Amino acid sequence: MDDRPDPYRQQRHDARFTLLVGALSIAALLFYYVKQECLLYGDAVAHINIARRVVDNRHPLLSLSELGTVWLPLQHVAMLPFVWSDALWRSGIAGAIPGMVAYLLGTLGIFRLVSSRAPGIAAYLAAAIYALNPNLLYLQTTAMNEPIFLAFFVWALVYLDEFWRGCFPGSAPHISPSRMGPNRSLEACGICLAAGACTRYDGWFVAALVGIIVAVIVSVWWRNNTDASQRRAIAKSFLEVLLLNALIPGFWLIYTYSISGYALDFINGPYSAKAIAARSTFSYPGQHHLFTAALYFLKSAKLNMGADAWSQVLFAAALVGTALAAWRFRRFWVLLLLWLPLFFYALSIAYGSVPIYIPVWYPHSYYNVRYGLELLPVFAVFAPLLVTSVAEHMKEVALRNAIWCALIAVVAGSYFSAWRDTPITLREALVNSRGRLAIERPLANYLADIPRSGTLLMYTAEHAGALQMSGVPRRHVISESEHPDWEWALLDPVHSAEYAVACYGDPVWLALRSVRADFVELLSISAPHQARCTLYKRKEIHESLLRNDLWLDAHTQLTLPPVTLCYNPPEGAMKRDSHA
User: What pLDDT digit, counting tens, does each position of 171-189 carry?
Assistant: First the structure.
């Protein structure tokens, strides 16, 4: 019998674990796809259509300008290989694929982060808490960018930990040695930080603080190491990391200036969070009050874990685990950086015009509740570390198993309560999408029947989902992202487009006011808390088609008198979609 160790055992084990998590991700996608819930978020629709207009627009040579100036570009660039397909674009799967890959990588990152300093059971449980979270499972099937940022954030800390352990081997007991050389792990950390900074503005905050920490580590290591070749390697990697992460904000400012003429358009522009908050009629909780802002963010984080009682227990365990990590700072200091989103969002809510509304606190509604999911790694890591620390002091195997089972039971109860009540991120999407979908679905039905050779004038910042549902090619649409066609069309809509969609108060509505007699109304739709939208056809086109009996027979619904639709949603529907 051959007793030699199998060199590929670990690789097969990792492959099975990866396949299991991947299967879970695909199962969640199929579940929500069948229920047609992958494109409920207004932001998800906006993200996937930004990517689509890069590959389908009126001016292919200017495609990169279609990325816009508010949202950072990495997610949209990651969708480009998939939005070419009409089926993947219209179904929303093109937007889900990057999130699903990020979900898988984030789970593996949590496992690797914990496995270096805790038993295997703690690492598996941490990965399970992360991967099985109902709200993360839903978000990774949408075109939202929170799962993508979480993956880069977790892996940046994994490589930061590898870098520290590579620089100071044996500096802390009970920690496995680094798998990579310190210069390579530092470069990998820098790449993850830069990728996060290209995904969400949270990444700018994280990159700045982690950059300071890296500078401190390098300076301490430099004083204790005299090897010239190692110094050159570390110095080269350190400078590359600093340069790369400094270039990201610089590039974005230059790009934004070149597109909009204003470098800070993403902060103060018409589509920024500040502009959206300014349109609100009341101040939101936590505005100009840092402590209240932090409380709202923490509450949203707990709601993303499940029902209040269960989430309180998990939160208490995470807090005690954090205190333990702070007590054993030399061993666990990297893990404390998982709390960085708390500081970023507390500052953003208080001073950055980024409100969070939660159903259990005033104003008892849903808005940006999903932001609390960015503390999921805190729950996933610190609760198992607490149990690990307690189990280390127990001699009886039965007691150790009992405490592990207790934590598993708490997590199971919390996640079961979330599924029972519907994951709060899904509830947020359902509530906030009702009015918007009441406009977009009937509008899409009519848009699907207009000739593909016709040109449509439409302000797509509000109802791009109607174009997506109908499959109207963006190259036949004159929208606010098409310059200078947009400006000319607003000046002379009669000679620029055969069809127009005008929603009360938008630029198209304003442009059509003086030439309304030149257009025929086909459809008018209204819904509470939504601007009334009307589909128009240019009168000369309409009259010529009326004279064509064959066309009339084939397209009767477009030549009927104008239809007026009204929609009254259930009570509690949110007044607006999330765009922050």
Answer: 666 676 667 789 999 999 9
DSSP string, 305-366: TSSHHHHHHHHHHHHHHHHHHHHTHHHHGGGGGGGHHHHHHHHHHHHSS---B-TTSTT-S-
Q: Hey, CA dihedral for 32, 144, 501, 438, is it positive or negative?
A: positive
Q: Which one, of 357, 377, 363, 380, lies nearest residue 427 by Cα?
A: 357
Dist CA 46 CA 247 (whole Å)? 26
Question: CB–CB of 110/377 below 8 Å?
Answer: yes
Q: What are φ and ψ of residue 132, in 5° steps?
A: -90, 0
Q: Is residue 86 part of a domain?
A: yes
Both 399 and 482 in one domain: the answer is no
Residues 239 and 103 in one domain: yes
Angle at 334 between CA 232 and CA 238, to 5 degrees: 20
**Residue from 198, 212, 208 nearest 266 by CA:** 198
Q: In terms of residue numbers, what domain contains 401?
A: 272-421
Encode pLDDT of 133-164 as tens digits.
Answer: 999 999 999 999 999 999 999 999 999 999 99
Which residues, 6 or more positions from 502, have their beta carbon under 8 angstroms from its beta carbon? Answer: 459, 508, 509, 511, 512, 533, 534, 536
Q: How far apart are CA 24 and CA 108, in angstroms?
A: 13
- Residue 579 belongs to a domain: no
Answer whether residue 306 is part of any domain.
Answer: yes
Give the whole-number percent of the chain exceeding pLDDT 90: 73
The token pair that represents 444 in the structure block = 């899409």
Residues 118 and 228 placed together within one structural domain of the fold:
yes
Torsion, CA 193, CA 198, CA 200, CA 205, rounded to 10: 40
Angle at 428 between CA 424 and CA 431, to 5 degrees: 130
pTM (2 decimals)?
0.92
Structure tokens at 480: 């606010």
Answer whether residue 205 is part of any domain: yes
End of a domain among 398, 421, 444? 421
Co-location of 384 and 440 in the same domain: no
**How many folded domains does the chain comprise?**
3
